[in-house]
Amino acid sequence: MKKKKINLRDLKPDSEAEHSNDDGHDHSGQSNNFKAYIPAIISFSMLIIGIGLDYFDVNFFKDWVRIIWYGIAYIPVGLPVVKEGWESIKKGDVFTEFFLMSIATIGAFIIGEYPEGVAVMLFYAVGELFQNAAVNRAKGNIKALLDVRPNEALVYRSNDYLSVSPETVEIGEKVQVRLGEKIPLDGILLSEKGSFNTAALTGESKPDTIVKGEKVFAGSINLEGVIEIETTKEFRDSSIARILDMVQNATARKSKTELFIRQFARIYTPIVVFLAIGVTFIPYFFVDDYVFINWLYRALIFLVISCPCALVISIPLGYFGGLGAASKNGILFKGASFLDAMTKINTLVMDKTGTVTKGVFKIKEVKAIGWNETEFMHYLMAMEEQSTHPIAKAILEYKVEGEDYEASEVSEIAGKGLKGIVNGKTVLVGNKALMTANNINVLNETETIVESIVLVAIDNKFAGYVVIADELKEDAKETIKALHKVGINSIMMLSGDKDSITQQVARELNIEKAKGGLLPEDKLNEVEILKQNPQNKIAFIGDGINDAPVLAASDVGIAMGGLGSDVAIETADVIIQTDQPSKVVRAIKISRSTRKIVWQNIILAFGVKLVVLILGAGGLATMWEAVFADVGVALLAILNAVRLQRMKWN
To answer: Which residues form the P-type ATPase A domain (predicted)?
Structure first.
């Protein structure tokens, strides 16, 4: 069966889907952002002018002139809501907040309370603008996926290398890849050897050395010279395309969190509507001088009062405060719903390389045998100066005293190491296979070392070894302790790096569950297994291209934004901009504080609303009192939300 070609334009962050009543504006530029506020500005201006004309009892501002004026003022903010309510009704979803806002404000016009009708809808529109601002300020666009795909391939055709799109390259063609370029398609190596950075694909922190005839994968970066490969797959079947396909599918499977107000409106709206009907007709059975028009008037006032304006505005204000507080702390949430989702997390899965480690090689241990450490390192560094391998670069960063030695007659033994002359002595630098080939016995302790190890022999005698390892980030250990303190007790590490290295890092960090040697699909499978238990609410932290499918599939995907790959950053729901894993703990704390503030605002708004509703049903409250009550609650909600900007989370 032919595979569907990936359309990267179809990939969008979930935050774009969380706001169902899209205003239709493009929020990419400042001018377009301003356009979103124009309807509210027009309505507000006309409302203020109308209220002024009413207050001074201007002669011409009567009857139809007054109705038309307020009608025009209502249209910019009211028409989109009425239209949305009608569209929802056509889809069978009657009791939405759009329906409630529509009948309440139209009801205000029916009973002659024109400015109140405009004011209520305007207040609602302002709340929606706050909500849009909260989401649009923090969300990103999936545009960097195009940068991850290799965009050209140098193919040997007609006795020359031609630059073409990778999608046009056929199986069996010869492709040239220059130093620092990405492998455009999966294939086999035609050159004698090559060194590749595969960290983005596999999570393997150590560069991968490949010899002639072995497989190379699209998306790997060529670290040594110019190489040639023979393609074995079409681009759409390559490793990088498969990963992007998994991102797309995982995103499609991911459930989208609805904002509280959407769920609340489905319950609140029908209750209010039926109560209003009750206010109209039930008094007929209990009141002697029942007049239908009077009780209809009260019911319409009841509907106007019932509009959850303060409730609508207080919720996005709380989230806006949370998003702002997170941004100040170097944490970017791509939407208000992810603040909510973060509060429910009880299981944390993390990548290793670049997430809890620095992804940079450094010398961890030097052991010289029969030599002092300084002289031993001079011999080793003299040899490594002749190599371009990333491990050689890590060794050359080591600081030693004295003058440097010079190596001569250095030759590279493919897949084993280097051989040369330093100070008249024959020096071998490489792996155990090199030592075995030259009949040199190494210490048994080297067999138990799981990190990368460089063995050294001088004049056919074992002289020692150097252990090269990826360093833990400074706050990695403290992060795990802090996660336990905030109630995240289920922590798991998944890595594409060797299982032995992954297990060692997990032990150092006191993480009980860890698995290494995983491909991107293996990581995805592990998370899918965890998701089979509905009690598990999973957050995943990663930074590589290989982490993107898991980031998309998790309840909350968290990416390291400083050094992380573009795909991981764009796929994730939360970005840690400073690359510090400890910020994940802070993100959890900020989310919980935000939810607390939001619920305080909800209880405040609903409590005040309930009191005014009761007064309105008894004819003791007018619509203006309801509007002013909403304004007061909204101001209190603003002050409450502002507290988030001043809070400290340690």
So the answer is: 149-248
